[in-house]
Amino acid sequence: MSKLLILDGNSVLHRAYYALPDWRNRSGEATAGVYGFLSMLLKAIEELKPTHLAVVFDCPEPTFRHNMYVGYQTNREKDRQISEDIWGQVEKLKTVFEKMGVPVYAIPSFEADDVIGTIAKKSKQGVIIITGDRDLMQLVDDNVSLYMPQKGLSDGIIVDRDKVKERLGVWPEQVVDYKALVGDSSDNYPGVVGIGPKTAVKLLENFKTFENVVKKSGNQKVIDGYEGGELSKRLAEIRTDAPVRLDRTKCEVPSVDKITEVFKELGYKSLVKRMTGEEIKVDTQGSLFERVGT
Description:
- The protein folds into two domains: 3-163 and 240-289, Rossmann fold; 166-236, Orthogonal Bundle (DNA polymerase, domain 1).
- The protein contains 14 helices and six strands.
- The protein has helices at 9-19, 32-48, 64-68, 80-100, 112-122, 161-168, 175-182, 197-207, 210-216, 220-224, 226-236, 256-266, 269-276, 286-289; strands at residues 3-8, 52-56, 104-105, 126-130, 144-151, 155-159.
- It has a six-stranded mixed sheet with strand order 3-2-1-4-5-6, with helices on both faces.
């Protein structure tokens, strides 16, 4: 059975960046995120056994959501060094995946979430998305599930419809309604002032959608906070009409030989050993990144 594995590139890279020591090459460029990203990918391939693979990154430029709401994501990491480290490693990873023959998508004006959503909803094969972003729970259905890292770079769990309900208290199709009510501090949009997670879950259990809560619940906070909630719902909703088309013939999972070849070029000794059991001797982390000793 064919299975498409989609990596939420920025989400996975951020987790890898903070999970490992601050490794840098001789030019002072951060490289740990690349190693951690590939380590997580290798574990996912070993565990999930996908037949197809695609990687999606954000673009550094503002998206349509920033145009919709001036405060969108203004609370994100402002540290210039961290920002440079992350985006520098995005470019390195694009080079790595080009060498592996894995397609990478990044669409201006759209977030990676929208590109992932478009690919996932158009796919006729089973889809698993690797991400740490709970926003993507709204995409989960009988054909789409998430693989969410839990601790460091090693553990992850499959999130299906029941797991979304267990974790958030609402079904995947209600995630945007939930966000409309409670907002999202990480993306810096407000929701309805005075409505917390427990109240939101109870309201949605009874009235199913944000619009029905507004019309039928009689909750004065929701009535007064309608504009903030309506804006938050539009910001939370992942679009599935991004201008992207997945060519299945170009996204088959690379062979063991191809992946091993790239890992050897990078000098990632431990990853080569995981792939083949082969010990390799290198003085640096390959001609690409020149990091000693992994």
